[in-house]
Design goal:
By secondary structure, the protein is of the alpha/beta class. It is 49% helix and 13% strand. The longest helix has 20 residues. The radius of gyration is 23 Å and the shape is globular.
Length: 417
């Protein structure tokens, strides 16, 4: 009997090893595909995947990154029965759209380190279905040296002060515009700028519920009216805002053609690739004349990674193991913090300003001070589909195609539909 038990245990161990090594498929490697949208971490993520496979030779991890076409491409992949092993959403409603494909991750080791906001973002009916990659926040990224050279000694805290700063920078030499921004496509405008109007409501979730139930409206809404005035300033002092994409926005800023840009902690890898010693920082967007309300960073756990439950037993096991390696080993954590420059959403991952750079350090400062408002694009009625329509409306207003009232009516029509 003891021999039979020993043989049985040996077989169990062998089968467990085969799941990750691929021997269950006649020594073929287990292929894990990661499809994600964060173009700024693409190279670092590929390096992390390569490091993982060095100690897990039975696994091959392929990383594919897509920017503006991510949602469409993801749907096409699943429609063609070629869904990735690991894919990205923004949580909440966006995650719920993919509920039929989500692997239950509630028992994974890293779940115990998730803060409440991450649990809320990744839960359906009390179960965890997502891995929160990082905390991300955005604000006005600026060249510290440019501000000093232009004689700007205080960071603006109101919209009128921000306009004064912009004017000083124009007079100093940024004649084509001191702000590098992008209003040529929907993504930034829809996913982040429009969300700022929701975050500035007295109770954002109640306001969104009211929009969905027909008891709230964008028409006459003061935070959105203020947001429109801020967009006016962005356009007035922007450098070619309608002819600039994400790459051009960052390139113009890193080359010194502009002194400011719409960015955040996620911008650090792009800046470091040009100059790791670039002297930059970030301050909150000055949307209104209320300095106290302006003194916040918009942030959320983002993105959220999911495992496709239809990937196959070996692929699913390998994907889970990779996420555990990233979040619960020193080597994996180092890639997340030091290479991807992410501000971790999980509390077990140590972080320092030296690791994440000045932008991540500024975000951490605001998180610690509880001066953070959420990013709500995942609660748009139909996820990124609505984000594109709302972003197009923002861009149309910025281009002068709408008055403020017409912009808010367009947003209301989109949401209601």
């Amino acid at each position: 009997m003891r021999k039979q038990v020993a043989i049985l245990l040996a077989l169990v161990l062998l089968m467990s090893t085969c799941v990750l090594s691929g021997c269950a498929k006649e020594n073929e490697p287990v292929k894990v595909t990661i499809f994600q949208q964060k173009i700024e971490i693409d190279e670092a993520l590929k390096a992390a995947a390569a490091a993982y496979t060095e100690t897990h030779p039975g696994v091959v991890i392929t990383v594919e990154t897509s920017g503006n076409n991510y949602a469409t491409t993801l749907k096409t992949q699943f429609t063609s029965n070629k869904g990735p092993t690991i894919f990205q959403t923004n949580g909440y409603n966006d995650m719920a759209l993919w509920a039929d494909y989500l692997e239950d991750l509630s028992r994974e080791e890293w779940v115990q380190y998730m803060p409440d906001v991450a649990v809320d973002t990744t839960s359906i009916d009390g179960k965890i279905y997502g891995f929160p990659v990082a905390m991300e926040g955005n604000g006005c990224v600026y060249h510290v040296d440019a501000f000093s050279a232009a004689g700007i000694t205080e960071i603006p805290t109101t919209l009128s002060e921000f306009r004064e700063v912009c004017q000083k920078l124009v007079e100093f030499g940024y004649a084509e515009g001191p702000i590098s921004n992008e209003y040529s496509s929907y993504y930034q405008a829809g996913m982040f700028i429009f969300s700022m109007g929701l975050a500035l409501q007295a109770d954002p979730l109640s306001f969104i519920d009211g929009l969905n139930g027909g008891t709230a409206t964008f028409l006459g809404n003061e935070p959105f009216i203020q947001l429109a005035k801020w967009i006016d300033t962005e356009i007035e002092f922007g450098e070619k805002p309608f002819n600039t994409d994400f790459v051009g926005e960052v390139s113009s800023f890193t080359s010194g053609n502009t002194a400011m840009m719409f960015g955040g902690s996620y911008s650090q890898p792009s800046l470091d690739s040009v100059d790791p010693e670039m002297n930059v920082s970030m301050f909150p967007f000055c949307i209104s004349e209320d300095s106290a309300k302006n003194d916040v960073i918009f942030a959320s756990p983002a993105p959220i990674w999911h495992i496709n439950k239809d990937s196959g037993e070996a692929e699913t096991a390998a994907a889970k193991d990779f996420l555990t390696w990233l979040s619960c080993t020193e080597e994996g954590q180092a890639y997340m913090v030091k290479e991807m420059k992410l501000v971790p959403a999980l509390t077990n991952i140590p972080v320092s300003a030296e690791d994440v750079g000045p932008l991540g350090a500024k975000l951490k400062e605001y998180i610690d001070a509880n001066k953070v408002l959420g990013i709500y694009n995942a609660l748009y009625p139909e996820g990124e589909g609505s984000a594109q329509l709302l972003g197009d409306a923002v861009c149309a207003y910025a281009a002068g195609q709408y008055t403020v009232d017409e912009f808010l009516q367009a947003a209301q029509d989109i949401w209601t539909k």
